[in-house]
From TrEMBL:
InterPro entries, per database record: C-type_lectin-like, C-type_lectin-like/link_sf, C-type_lectin/snaclec_domain, CTDL_fold
SMART domains: CLECT (SM00034)
Entry protein name: C-type lectin domain-containing protein
Alphabetical keyword list: Signal
């Protein structure tokens, strides 16, 4: 029943060329998925971290940031996995907004320069020195889904996970 209701809403939204209203009265831009009041979209084209930031900006968004790794799981399960199910990845790896700032000697969320909380992102509690490092996240979609973040060379290619505010 709920699936049929969502299809009807989608058809109406597309016919009126308006974004689809999501749960909790949140309206996201077209193509973005509401997850707990924020809007997420994933590109299915793997790219470098810098190119991923440009892709998100072209959609009036930024690479996704999170208060803790536990917030990543519902976003991946609701916004990324369904879209990427026809893609070649079972547990897709996505770029998120965290990057190491050698000048601050700390991991930051690049879109607003706020510090990453190491309490919730323990993998980022080390300092890579002067090396530019970026962060991707992965969610294991088994019976008990879990998320993990890893810092890697920013030239690696992963899927951009973009976030924007509701409209």
């Amino acid at each position: 029943m709920w699936k049929m209701f969502r299809i009807v809403l989608l058809v109406i939204a597309l016919a009126q060329n308006k974004p689809l209203a999501a749960s909790q009265g949140v309206v996201c831009p077209t193509g973005f998925q509401n997850v707990h009041g924020s809007c997420y979209w994933v590109s299915l084209t793997p790219t470098t971290w810098k190119a991923a930031t440009v892709i998100c900006q072209s959609h009036n968004a930024h690479l996704a940031d999170f208060s803790s790794r536990y917030e990543i799981v519902p976003v991946m399960l609701d916004a990324v996995i369904p879209k990427s199910s026809s893609f070649k990845y079972r547990d897709p790896k996505v770029w998120i907004d965290a990057v190491y700032s050698p000048s601050k000697r700390h991991w930051i969320w690049s879109h607003d320069s706020s510090l990453v909380n190491y309490r919730y992102f323990t993998q980022l509690a080390h300092s890579p020195g002067t090396t530019e490092r970026c962060v991707f996240a992965i969610v294991n979609t088994g019976i008990h889904p879990w998320a993990h973040e890893f810092d890697v060379n920013c030239e690696n290619s992963y899927l951009p996970l973009c976030e924007t505010s509701p409209i």
